[in-house]
Amino acid sequence: MSRGGVPQTMMDDGYKSGKGLYICTESFTLDETILLVNILKSKFGLNCSYHKVSNGNRIYIFSTSKEKLINLVQPYFLPHFYYKLDLDKDSYPEPS
Fold first, then answer.
1. pLDDT, tens only, 41-79
2. Where in the sequence is the domain holding 44, given as residue range(s)?
3. Fewest beta carbons within 10 Å, which of 32, 34, 57, 58?
4. What is the tally of structural domains in the chain?
């Protein structure tokens, strides 16, 4: 996953949950989800894991990595999707 792939994934399949964030990965196998978790940890330094849900697994990004994730994706994120990161679109400049 590239740096540009993280914001695309978050805009498409991400959502906030409590103080953390989920990425819906139910269409992936468990091995693929674990691979993505390992990439998010090693390549981007995000504190995350996977959670079992009724129809598969989702990646959970812990609140301790929320600011790091925002700094990673915000330059690529469309302001329309800021709600997925629990951001006020008036508080952040539009990407250039």
1. 999 999 999 999 999 999 999 999 999 998 888 888 888
2. 5-85
3. 32
4. 1
